[in-house]
Amino acid sequence: MRHDHLISAAQLSRADVEAVLDRAAEIDADPAAVRERHAGTVLALCFFEPSTRTKMSFDTAMKRLGGETIDMGSVESSSVKKGESLADTVRVIEGYADALVLRHPSEGSAQMASEFVDVPLVNAGDGAGQHPSQTLLDLYTIRENAGLDDITVGVMGDLKYGRTVHSLSMALTNFDVRQHFVSPASLRLPQSVRYDLREAGAEVSEHEELAGILPELDVLYVTRIQRERFPDEREYRAVAGEYQIDLSTLAEAKESLTVMHPLPRVDEIDPAVDETAYANYFEQSHNGVPVRMALLDTLLDSP
Amino acid sequence: MSDHELRVSKIRNGTVIDHVAAGQALNVLAILGIDGSAGESVSVGMNVPSGRLGRKDILKVEDRELSPSEVDVLSLIAPEATINIVRGYEVVEKNRVERPDRVVGVLSCPNHNCITNANEPVDSKFAVLGEELRCEYCGTFVRESFADHIDAS
């Protein structure tokens, strides 16, 4: 991969994805081999929104490569509170670090920030936009469990605001994947994502119910239906129950189905599913560390 | 001299923007940032008869020649417009507008959560995709009513 920054999954070619996933597999198999690989490197964690998994896995990834991290802390305790622009914040932090990871509530923030810095910048979520490093670990998990070609993937939940879905669906167009999207009509994929999928020639279909397509799926990627997105609580209740997975839901699924979720979950997946072979969401989350180690290794070595 | 040409006086130097879709003249002024505060002399004809358009608007702006970026944006709301550059009462250049590949710094993104609406030191940038525009930051599409998104500030 020869990119200065990772802003959107649309940047990633099949070769880029495979290079990062192959590197992640090497690291996963022998983490000790890279223990000092980036000694002295400093990664800045710039999280303008709360994060647990993404932030901690980048933190861990950098440290396991021998580097260090600096953290701007919460927005409340930073100069952002004084009204500093994002452009100024990243320009200042660039002076302290060799690479930046940015999460910000505004769409397009990572793209804009990348125009102001020369060190590699990774988009760790820009509003409802993109989350490409999550996509790499999602792809790693899919490859481990089902392969990445000639598979059928169902993506279910809040497809409108779900940035992990936007990134994943785009990245899957590099592979021979049939994509089914399941959501209430009000939370369908946004127009921009549907446009990109169409332009990429993706094989895509949209549904309001899972039942009809579940038996075909090799992977089911579940996201949270976000209650706060609904103006009316009754409207939320009307659809929420339709998008929950439990053992009875999965009765019609292939035995080899891989169930994934970017987490945190609330009630989308019944805890009883955790104990089955379907459940891969915790493995998926754990994959964040080797995949982000591979990503950082690649970006930091990029010419 | 035709009847509609008599309605607005000739200019010595400047730009005549002709064949603007009826009703868009004030949006054209907004694009050009003309609100009279700089003392510009502007003549506006609205809903004048047009052989090509039925009805059209026409603007004559004294001592002002449009920049290429202004013409680009003009093309979005007045794709049929012709731009006449006038010097010494003579039309020295006559051009049809053409849709550009990109529009920078003129329209605001309709997505309120787009970073370009957050007081950052960055211009809005839209790719022109056929009849639609797409924000280069957040991906949001603008399909029509471009004039509603003109950033007149």
Features:
heterodimer, A: five-stranded parallel β-sheet, about 35% helix, globular, B: about 150 residues, alpha+beta, five-stranded antiparallel β-sheet, 3 helices
Description:
The complex is a heterodimer of chains A (303) and B (153). With 303 residues, chain A is α/β, with parallel strands linked by helices. Chain A has helices at 14-29, 53-64, 86-94, 109-114, 132-146, 163-172, 191-199, 233-240, 281-286, 288-301; strands at residues 42-47, 68-71, 99-104, 121-126, 151-156, 177-182, 203-207, 219-222, 258-260. In chain A, the strands form 2 sheets. Chain A has a 5-stranded parallel sheet with strand order 7-6-5-8-9. In chain A, strands 2-1-3-4 form a 4-stranded parallel sheet, with helices on both faces. In chain A, helix 7 links the parallel strand 6 (177-182) and strand 7 (203-207). The radius of gyration of chain A is 19 Å and the shape is globular. The mean pLDDT of chain A is 94. Chain B is an alpha+beta fold and 153 residues long. Chain B has helices spanning 3-7, 25-32, 68-77; strands spanning 14-21, 42-50, 54-62, 82-87, 90-96, 102-104, 125-129, 132-135, 141-142. In chain B, a hairpin with a 5-residue loop joins strand 8 and strand 9. In chain B, helix 2 runs antiparallel to helix 3. The termini of chain B are far apart. The chains are: A alpha/beta (303), B alpha+beta (153). The interface between A and B is medium-sized, with 22 and 18 residues.
